[in-house]
Amino acid sequence: MVDTKMDQLYEQDYSQWAETMADLLESGKFTELDIENLVEEVRDLSKRERDHLLSSLRLIIHYLLKWDHQPQRRSRSWLGTIERERANIALYLQDSPSLKRYLVDDSLIKIYPTARADGFKETGLEFPEFCPYGIDEVMNRGISLGD
Question: pTM of the entire structure?
């Protein structure tokens, strides 16, 4: 049964609702918890972690495309973005090792159209229709300004 007061709080002041849920959990008042919304929020936490990882993969692909198709414009900034996002992924995996299941070529297939579109918007260049990289290359390919 949904507690109307808690449901209203969830809809009107999410921050206060979250604090209330934390206080109820801490004090062991489990019967007062807004279980329906609490379950939804916990599931969303997992999705957010996955989305952070996929966003980093998308940025790496975006910059690898620019790197490969605009060699005359390569910069330390591009190199820094690729390295930063690889480091971010390493941190995500350190905190949540189960995210490793998303470091597969199927994930690249899903995010590539967005990375390709971002690259096009930024450069006006047409990039390959299908992702030219495998996950190992995205994560480990060595690049330097001397390439």
Answer: 0.79
